[in-house]
Fold these 2 entries.
Entry 1:
Amino acid sequence: MPARRPAPSFQIRVIGPAGWAEKLLNHLAEQATPLFGPLVTCTTQTRPARRRGHVRAYFTVTPKEEI
């Protein structure tokens, strides 16, 4: 039976111009890393949005899996 991934602690979605969304996600990552320490994994993902020049960007914080 495959191991289950831990559920995200939280996820933030940002929809807006690509440059602004990228800057905001970078800032969130910089702030979250010292706040949560080595116990979590912070990931980002960017996808196209409906409006031209806009993206849907996601910032997710997940507890690290035990090995």
Entry 2:
Amino acid sequence: MTFQKLFVFLSVVSLFLSDSAFAQLGGGRIVRVDEEAQSRCIDPYKDKLWLTLRSLVISKNSQFLTKDKEVSIIIKAKVQTDPVPQVPIVYPLMASAKIGEGPAGQYSIPIEYSIVSGLVLKQDSVVYSGIGADITLVNVKDRSGWGTALQTLDSITSGSKLPIPSSPYTQAASYLISFANSAVQKDIDAQNSDNKAVAGSMQFNFDPNGQCAGDFEQTGTKALIYAQGDTTSGGYVPLNEIEKRCFSAQFLPSFVLKSAPRPVSGDCRTVQAGQFQSVANNYLAFYLNKQTITKTLGANNLATRDMKESLMRCKANGVSDKKCLQ
């Protein structure tokens, strides 16, 4: 079965993974983690992009979430384009992970999934202006109860961790033809509410001017922090106080987001390591890499700079040079 035929079926699955099927988290705030690699503006007219989910931390409030248990992670990858497509472009992906212990009152789930891998953001007349993802956890204790649709999605994508295709806009026409399979909806509805939980949703928009003035996305290791979490913990960060905090992370062996009060000087580099506490909010951890595309032969200073910084960021996150920019 070819990659394209697989996604014809998977897109049908995506149609019926509706937001109404699961309890939703409130809106989150993206924070940048201090790291050695410098942050760069993502230019949709000049760059190609990598988006990798690192891990997620979620409260222990779902019955099926227990330490060392396997969980399936359904990722609905969404693409924004100019021109705007006639129907939303959504690609369903799935991965499996083992639940680990997180900060008090939370679980940590390593994902390590490259949702976007080297996507050229300008392809002929199409410009990819944004990328998003909705992430849902599903109990895998009894896969036989999933029905054919979820079982097929699991068998196709869970082990291989396929990214979205290299030309999402032009390939979507062939992927999104068939929506008639109502059995998929029954598949989702058949899952008990205690066997599924939404982990989060994120959206990244790219500055068409390549300057990142305002709320446009840049490269870096980041976390999307939600209001949900252990509000009684000293590590809990109210979303309206994020600007008053500095953020760092323990990258290995597992990702742990940490925060500390921002000093009066505003310089987070002066904060001592012992002042940081593990963040008690729910959050998604991820990193964005990019590389400037050059049409000239020979070395290009910007492309070389981007590659060095991407390799540095991957190394910090435990990813080898070979796998970093695949």
